[in-house]
Structures are given as structure tokens and as C-alpha cells.
Amino acid sequence: MDITQLAAHSFTFPAPELALQEPNGLLALGGDLRVPRLLAAYRQGIFPWFSPGDPILWWSPDPRAILYPTELHISRSMRRFLRQCPYRFTLNCAFSDVVTACATVRKEETWISGEIQQAYCQLHQLGYAHSVEVWQEDIPSAFDAAALLATSPRSQVDLHSSGCTPWPPSGNFKDCGYKLVGGLYGVAQGTLFCGESMFSLADNASKSALMVFCHHFSSHGGELIDCQVLNAHTALLGAREVPRHYFLQQLRQLQLSSVSTECWPVQVLYIPNEFRVTARRQGSETDERRHTT
Fold it and tell me: Which end of the chain has fewer surrounding CB within 10 Å, N or C?
């Protein structure tokens, strides 16, 4: 079967069911990464994936990897990590930095080209794409916490669990002694979130980002995360494969609903208490609690 060459001035895609079986999901080539075309693709369960210097390739694989936030798997070792988690989490505070980091840490996978980065930053600026950031304190001895408190609106400052160091105001993490060590980004489609990529520069940074995001997304009405293609990392977290026709059916249905208005504004995200609970051994004096999602 011949691959469809997209017209320069048309945002029409062939039906996903026409995608090749080998390579799995290849549907079309060409076109561009302008916002209208990207949105048209995501509305039909299609996404771009190509190497720099090659034509733009568009995919809709079968099967499709998905993750229901309520089916997120948290191992006992991860629960122990979350009890003493050294990270702070934000939403939409540093989208371009997350995309750049996702490209940088994947030196052997260069598909997140400068063209891709620019395109998704445009989606973000228009409110379609979102990021989760994972921050770790890297505060020099000269850091003046009192000055930060004096110049920060009271409503934007919170305290760490230690009660010692103040939260930076939203958007100023890099300027207040924090470094970006993990994150993820993707495109929202109603109550479905199309995950694009994640990165980690510290232990469990990307895993904890996904876990915190799943709780935030589902608590605001989010129902499904598109993982595109299953890999060992996402499988361990609870992602699974479903037939493409089932995913497309879910996509059409979830596009008709919406998350709450509090879901996407810039904000600090927190680890829910139930993620921190470690299952007790049998015979423990305290009751055993398990996260059933």
C-alpha cells in the first residue's frame, strides 16, 4: 500500500485504519507542523514521529498503549521513595525547558528536533499542550530566603514539609535555587491526555512526575492517558495495549467531555497522602493500607 502524501494546504488525514502494519502505524508523510494540522492529527488519534532531516511521518499504531490514571501501579519501593520524596512538582511552569530536556537526554533518539520543540511550544502557548515539572533544591549558601519571602505575594508562597525553606513564587523556580530534574509533556484532548515524552535526571523523577500528574488529572475529571506505544517503563506503571479501534472510540467519546477549569492553570502539584503509604507486613500492629488504583 502506498503512503499518503499530505497536501500542503489541506489538513485532511487518511483514516487511521489505513495505516500500515509494517512499520506498525505509519499512515502518512509530509505536510508541516503548524498548529491546525497538529490539532487535526490529535483529534483523529494521529501523531508525528520522525528523525531530523527526514520527511514528517504521521502514525496511528495498532495496538495502542493507554494508561487509566486509576490503574496506576505504584510499587512498594516507589511508595517508600515517595514517603521521603526530595522533589517539588509544578504544572505548566517551564514547558519549553521540559521539551528541551526531553530532547537532550535522548541523544540516541533525536526525534524531538528543534522543529518539534517549536511546534509544541506553540501548542502550549495556545493552551493545548501542558507540562509537569520536577524540581530539586540546589540552594547555594548565599541564598536569601528572607528576601524571597519579602518580595513574594503571600498567596504564592508555601512552606516545604520541613518548614524551613519557602516555596518560590510560581514560575520563578530556576531563579530561586531549584533545578529541573524531571518532567513530562503532552497534548490535552478533552478528558484524554496524549503523552508525548518524559525525562529524568535524578532517581524516580519521571515516575513520580507521572504519578503526581495521574492523581491531579483524574481528580479534575481526566479519564485516560495515551501512551502511544508500550514500553517497559510505562508497562511497569500500569499502561497496557488495546486495539486501535477501541482507542479511537474512547478518543471520540472523551473529546466531548472536559476537565475542570482548575486542571490546567500554572500551579504547584502535591503528592497525595495515599501514594506515601507503604503496605505493612502481616502481623504489623498498624492496619495494612493498599492503594487499590
Answer: N
